Amino acid sequence: MKLVEIIILPEVQLGDPLQQVRLPSLDPWRRERTMLADNRFRIIDSAMTPWPHFVYDIFDFHRMKQTIKEYFRNFVKTSIPEEPVSLSFWTASNLTLTPRDRLALFMVDDALLRLHMEVRLIGLNSVLCCVSCSTEIARRENVFAMSTEGVHSNYINLGGYMHDLVTVTRTQNIQLSGPASTEFSWFPGYAWSIALCVCCMAHVGWRFDALKRAVRPSQFFGLCRNNVVPRPAPTFPPSTPPPANLPSDGSVSQPL
């Protein structure tokens, strides 16, 4: 076996390109760190350069951080990193992305450029669809954090297979298969049921139901990140009807 040495290169961190053209006379008013005030000052500063204002948006870390915080505000329990490099990797880990998009993010060696790409992906992808037939399964506003690690967590079943789950409060176009079970539940106090896509019957995740009435949430879904893919929201409702021969005896079974 040949041993190799791996060197992790440092992240490229570019400074504010408008720092050198800032008007000193406006510095007393720059203390108001709001998104609106920052945008106004950047418009004034960019007027001193040959480039338009929108060219410098990619370097506006405060704007991108605010957009990411607004996106994760309702479904993340932990605090969001404040430093650009940590925030860019944290966002990449908590967004539901296609393998191609995730690889593109990790190939970038500039934290600000990575954040810019993530903000763009946040604006584009708003629904989770079945990877087999593209049927809509869940919406972005239904994602929430069931774990303190974020909206995504890894779980291993008895067979040693690892599932990367994204938890959502509500789904559509799914069919439950088999009876609910409490054996080896990843979430103590919850019983799990297998969830299949209603159109192609592919396995997309599980539904978890609380065993006690006082437990909150009383019900949620865990979707496999490998079995759902983020897509832009359709402009019209899907017209594909579910198959007529759905199994009614719960014969399809895929345990945790």
Compose a concise summary of this entry.
The chain is an alpha+beta fold and 256 residues long. The chain has five helices and nine strands.
* CATH-assigned homologous superfamily of the largest domain: Peptide methionine sulfoxide reductase
Shape, please?
elongated
| End-to-end gap | 36 Å
pLDDT averaged residue by residue: 82
Order of strands in the sheet with most strands: 3-4-8-7-6-5
Percent helix range: 10-25%
In the residues, how many domains can be counted?
3
- Low-pLDDT runs of 5+ residues are 244-254
Q: State the CATH architecture of the largest domain.
A: Beta Complex
**Relative strand content:** 15-25%
Strand tally is 9
Helix/strand-derived class? Answer: alpha+beta
Q: Enumerate how many helices there are, as a single number.
A: 5
**CATH top level assignment of the largest domain:** Mainly Beta
Radius of gyration: 23 Å
- How would you sum up the major sheet? 6 strands, antiparallel
- Secondary-structure element order, N to C: HHHHHEEEEEEEEE
